[in-house]
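Hi X.,

You mentioned you wanted examples for the new student's onboarding notes, showing what a folding record looks like when two proteins sit in one file. Here is a clean example. The first protein comes first, with its sequence line followed by its structure tokens.
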Amino acid sequence: MKAVISDMVERFEKGTITRRDLVQGLAMLAAASAVPVAGAAPAPAAAPAPSLDATGVDHVSVLVSDLERSTKFYQGVFGLSVLSEDKEHAIVRLGHKRAIVSLRKERPYGTVDHFGIAIEHFNKPAVTEVLKQHGLTPMENWQYGFYFKDPDGVNVQIV
């Protein structure tokens, strides 16, 4: 098609075809290229990246100034029990059967620093592959576990 267009433009420049003939010829080429050829397979549509099967919010992590005071607050208001403590990192996990609020003594106080999403049949290599297909880079550390950042930089933990 490129050769046909070059030939038409060259003929126009030499004056052997009019501007109208050039425009009509280009329009016909464009229209012809948009019509599917009989028997030709349609171009494959790009498959959407698979999604993870989230079962719910697993927990929310809150940065607090006074771990004991905040623990008592969540226990009193919601009736949560201390499920585990990480004294080295100043973390208390509260809940009933599982942690739903994780308190960590760290600045900036009063900040939700991450939340965890529970994934059905969590498998780290499979989840990593899905995240990469979405253009995300999974990371891992002691603060957020296995996580990635959302478009606004929020830490989203996958459990």
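Then the second protein repeats the pattern, sequence line and then tokens:
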Amino acid sequence: MKTLAIPQDKAELLSRLQGVTFSSPRQWGKMTPHQMLCHLSDSFRGVVGEKTIAPATNLFTTTVMKAFALYAPMPWPPGIKTRPEVDQEIGGTKPAEFAHDKADLERLIEMFARPQQDFASYTHPIFGRMSPAQWHRWAYLHVDHHLRQFGA
């Protein structure tokens, strides 16, 4: 299973991210490539407490849905609804300058992947509390999902 805890997996994501351009063609959804960069950054900021994302947890999302999302042997499907605080059309950070927003996402991925990252205070808005291994798996899968959205 790929995860941000494995340096090669992180390097693969960062390499694929470099292939995303302002005009990368969308494979599904409504986001632009630039909005996707901001969406992923907002998601990381929400986890580390730099952005407030209202929780939408329940017993199903914190058990069954979390286990399926993190461990099912298939990529996440298109069309998953996101929280309004990380939706760039609603409450997410508006895209500013493409290169800067891409560099900011790279910085957040690097920070999140640090081996000494303290995940104890983090809570996912849908999946709830997670172990460091689960956080690294979620981060890999979330970035992978959106890179695939733009053919990267």
